[in-house]
Amino acid sequence: MSKNHLFRLFVYGTLKRGYWNHEAFCSEAVSIQEATVRGRLYELPSGIPVLLVPEEDILAVGTTDPLADFATQLHFVAGLTNPEPTSDWLLRNASSAPWITVCGELLTFDDPENCIPAIDRLEGLCPAGTSLYQRVLVPVRLSDGGVTTAWCYISSSQTLQSARATDKTMWP
Q1: Measuring CA to CA, which of 53, 63, 155, 163 is 20 to 30 A from 170?
Q2: φ and ψ at 71, to 5 degrees?
Q3: CATH 3.10.490.10: does it fit domain 7-161?
């Protein structure tokens, strides 16, 4: 893949730098930068975070084919005509209670076929069955104010039943 076409993954929990799953699953990231999404953090009884995002922000749902998901990501990135902070997504973000800005990291990978299936397994992603998380494509605001799209693991409705809502903008 070319440097301009990297698989983007927004992480907000144990996959972030400095946490126990980062080295094992994300050491192949070619870049990492601070970023945010619109959503709400929940916490499982174990202390692990789960994210819920507004349904209208979900651009696509991930599959078991990282290359097909990469093509989907490219389609939506190409459709971003206004990456400035005044884009429609940011306007919605500014005025949309109960959603808040959740902080995390945007990881980029140049070999999603080898990296993403392992992360999917870690997150309990099973598109054809019951999953702990779903991988969805959402708008992501970059630290420089630009907007792109990235895949993100969000809570399944079943997982959310055992979680408690928090007012945290970042985990922990």
Answers
A1: 63
A2: -60, -40
A3: yes
